[in-house]
Amino acid sequence: MAKKLKTTCQKIYKRYRTTIDTKDGTYKVLQITVERDEKLPLRTYFGGVCLQWNKWVTIDDNQANHIWNGRSEVVQRLLAQQCEICGTTDNIEVHHIHKLADIKQKGCQERPEWMLKMSARKRKTRFGLSAMSRENPIWTLRR
């Protein structure tokens, strides 16, 4: 904050220093108050957090409480074994494009359906038929 206001830390501490009472006790904090018209003042503070060690806390390392999925989206799409454009399930290949800017071609009046889907989903990888990749030269085969 001192760097932002182009001043020294000592001046910041003198200007914003105050004490607050919490359930854990009294703390020295830096508090900033912004007065507003027809509303309560907006107050925020830095500090006031209890840093005391709590040795009676319980640690929950239960694997059932994890919020992430076991597989990434690319793996789920690959295991589906289905073309993302037409839905067929034979001769599926993985194709990767260098960058999304190659899909968003300027001057192309009517873009194919696969281009619209890829740019809408912001995905560079496509799972599809090998015949479709031969029609579109920007796809490179990744095996």
Strand content: 15-25%
Major sheet size, sense and barrel closure: 3 strands, antiparallel
The helix tally amounts to: 4
Radius of gyration computed on alpha carbons: 28 Å
Overall 3D form = elongated
Q: In which order are the strands of the major sheet placed?
A: 1-2-3
How many distinct beta strands? 6
Helix fraction, binned, reads 10-25%
Q: What distance lies between the first and last C-alpha atoms, to the nearest angstrom?
A: 52 Å
List SSEs in N-to-C order. HEEEHEHEHE
Which structural category do the helix and sheet elements fall into? Answer: alpha+beta
Mean pLDDT: 78
Could you describe the 3D structure shown?
The chain is built from four helices and six strands; from the N terminus they run αβββαβαβαβ. It is α+β, with helices and mostly antiparallel strands. The strands form two sheets. It has a three-stranded antiparallel sheet with strand order 1-2-3. The protein has a three-stranded antiparallel sheet with strand order 5-4-6. Strand 2 (25-34) and strand 3 form a beta hairpin. The longest helix is centred in the last third of the chain and has 9 residues, at 113-121. The protein is elongated, with a radius of gyration of 28 Å.
Helices, strands, pairings?
Blueprint (H helix, E strand, L loop, with lengths): L8 H8 E6 L2 E10 L7 E5 L26 H7 L12 E5 L16 H9 L3 E5 H6 L4 E2 L2
Antiparallel strand pairs: 1-2, 2-3, 4-5, 4-6
In short:
With 143 residues, this protein is α+β, with helices and mostly antiparallel strands.
